[in-house]
Amino acid sequence: MRADGELAARVEDVLLGWWQHLSEAVDTDNDGRIDMDDLLAMVDRLPTMRDAVVATADTVFDAVDENGDGRISRNEHQRLVDLWHGQGVATGDVFDRLDQDADGHLSRAEFAALWTQFWTSDDPAEPGNYVCGPVAGHSPR
Q: Which residues form a coiled coil (predicted)?
């Protein structure tokens, strides 16, 4: 099983690399800084960048799948949520919302679909919006 530090480092590398790629694409005034307009432009572009989103999903999946069995268990998902929040988070029924086929794990394809929803969906009812834990303002059951 991977140490928390290794998981944190891999996820951080993926997300910071993705952030760098996205920030370069939306730095509209080329000043090397991201202002609120640039940030909103980036968020607006994410739905058109599905390949980039899915590529990050694969890397995050590999980092979270600690035992390398090709699926994410409830416990592995909990560690992702805790890492995302920087502390232990009560997730209630979040994993059950994500595991729509109720087989007790998330496959690579399931996780990629959920991850894509997380980054591109405006609909808080879509399960992918819970991939990194409870949605603010909605308490877990």
A: none
